[in-house]
What we know:
Layout: H1 10-22, H2 26-30, H3 34-57, H4 60-65, H5 69-96, H6 104-142, H7 148-153, E1 165-173, E2 184-193, E3 199-204, H8 218-222, H9 244-250, H10 262-274, E4 280-285, H11 286-295, E5 299-303, E6 307-309, E7 315-317, E8 320-324, H12 326-334, H13 341-358, H14 361-366, H15 368-378, E9 379-381, H16 388-399, E10 403-407, H17 420-436, E11 489-490
Parallel strand pairs: 1-4, 3-10
Antiparallel strand pairs: 1-2, 2-3, 4-9, 5-8, 6-7, 10-11
Helix pairs in contact: 1-5, 1-6, 5-6, 6-15, 9-10, 11-12, 11-15, 12-13
Amino acid sequence: MAHRTRPASAGAVLGWTLLSAIAPGAAHLRAGWRKTGLALLGCYAVLLLGLLWLFLAADGDLAGKFTSNSVMTTVTVAAAVLGLSWFALILHSYLVLSPGKLPQSGQILTGSLAGLLAVAVILPFALATQAVWSAQQMLNSVFQEPTEPQAARHRPEDPWAGRTRVNILLLGGDADDNRIGVRTDSMNVASIDVKTGNTVLLSLPRNLENVRFRPGSPMAKRFPEGFRLPPDPGGGRSDLLNSVWEYADAHPEIFGGKKGQGAKALMDAIGYTLGLDIDWYALVNMWGFARLIDAIGGVTITVEQDVVFGKYNEGLVKAGTRKLKGADAMWYARSRTYSDDFTRMRRQRCVMGALLSQADPATVLIRFNKIALATRELVRTDIPRTMLEHLVPLALKVKNAKVTSVQFMPPLIDTGYPDWVKIRAVTAKALKDSVTQRPSAASAAPSADPVAAPSAKPSSGQTSAAMPSDKATVPATQKPKPSDLATPKGITDGCGA
């Protein structure tokens, strides 16, 4: 192997070492290590071609595969190995240029700068290793390993088990250190078409009364005529929809002594109310949601008018369009001062819409560690860990698909005396309109007589069995008129300019 004997200047040594950081093997070729230089350049070309292929082939399915434990572990190890290899490459590139032939001052200067360069090139790999490791730990802590029945249900060839829609219950919990149990003051069902990603966001009010449960369920046996409890001594209500989780958790005897059934009871109640089968839930502490907003750098929202908040009106979110930090965004969404539950529902939808539209991939990547930490601490869900491989591509579809919303509030429904048949008819029509990918018209006919035979359960798993008070066939005089059905809106409709 031939080596060059002519001494190089300090500038040349530094220049060729720096070039080796972006073109491995350059310094070796300059120093006469031809075979080694060509081998390094060849390996580098293969690596670049592989990265280019990944970039061009990148789609939702590929992104989903990167959430699996095996792939994430492989990426973590590969990033660490590549980082150490690049570190060693820089040092070796420097040494083959014979810096020992330089004057002492030149050796000190070039050696120091080469060392700094070696540290600099390893930093991106270290950050990538740490980010992937953090993501893996976050996913493993938030999402659960599937049980045997779940694993059998979701097979690779058909992860959706024959369903055309996935229904996920999105909850905002109003928990704090001074409150026992979980109060779910924000309840939305995201019903997603698995082919198109078109999504309908169905919002239910916290103060929905006389909630029904699926026939045969433990809660239905306890409350056959609906969720009713004696009034609180202080005049408050503890039998509204937002109290179902808390009540079920506090009464394990209803479930044969089995604890922690609040989530299942609420999923059952909401799914039965809407005529849907709820697949999974995701609960986010509302103040934790504020930290998530801070993690992405805030959200830009148009506040239509001043929003006063606090028990003693001690806070104010001023009107105007600007970027809100997490705390202000949450007060905007949650304040009850001079407001009602339905205005709060609209504001919560606006915050969700802003977060969905503004949490772009670049922002998520830049702030990934903060987002991962916030998510790890604040999200509670029963979504199986292995389903992420399929849910990530679906989420990317939703990002670019049509998202509409229906809010079940007056005048559409009376929360004190809900029309259950109408709620289910509105839901069925909104889902049908979402599939056709066109805006829903208020005068359009409802979906194929959705209340005519409510006990039938289609194979897609979209609707559930009828309520105890429903009849096999609803008389024509009781069926909702087409004009009674809500027009699904875009998720940010009514949220200001």
